Amino acid sequence: MPVKSFEEYAEKHLKWKEELQQLRELLLSTELEETIKWGAPIYVLNNKNVVGLGAFKNHYALWFFNGALLQQNTELLINAQEEKTKALRQIRFKENDKLLISTLKKYVEEAIQLQKAGKEIKPKKNKPLTIPSELKEAFQKDTELKSAFEKFTKGKQREFTEHIANAKREATRISRLQKCIPMIKAGIGLNDKYRK
């Protein structure tokens, strides 16, 4: 079941519930509005994503959608996926880390000002689509699969191709391909279940 509220999200991440609540209070003390996207709490300004909350097994985090543009408040920011993530930055917290709300508020306020100024890093458009060899072979064997794939938008095609290609081991790429084939044939995007 997709998460529909902050409360549901916090209940799914009991280990970090109290810390998530503190971060939520900080975010709601600003002009940001709370919404749920991709199954997590996201804080928006005029429907533009500014900050998100994330909870994982060993850490929880504040995500800044245009964190790469922050200039004054940068020492805690990390890029979770070098080479992949252009704009997104996060501040990670582990167990027993002290939440310095006054410090974090400066990051959030700068992110809000950037959004108000209309500054954002736009994703690169029309990047060539690279189809992994495993998927090419599957297309040669199954024309129905190929035509179903071609009905998807470029973005959804890219989600499938990158999901398969990003596996380091050939066995994992083949396993991912096998899981994707029924979805492609059914016209279901890889990440459709996370979209509203």
UniProtKB/TrEMBL annotation:
InterPro entries: YdeI_bac, YdhG-like. The lineage of its organism: Bacteria, Pseudomonadati, Bacteroidota, Flavobacteriia, Flavobacteriales. This is YdhG-like domain-containing protein. Keywords: Coiled coil. It holds the Pfam family OmdA. Residues 6-33, 70-97 form a coiled coil. SUPFAM superfamilies: YdhG-like (SSF159888). It comes from Mesonia mobilis. Residues 16-112 form the YdhG-like domain. It comes from the Bacteria.
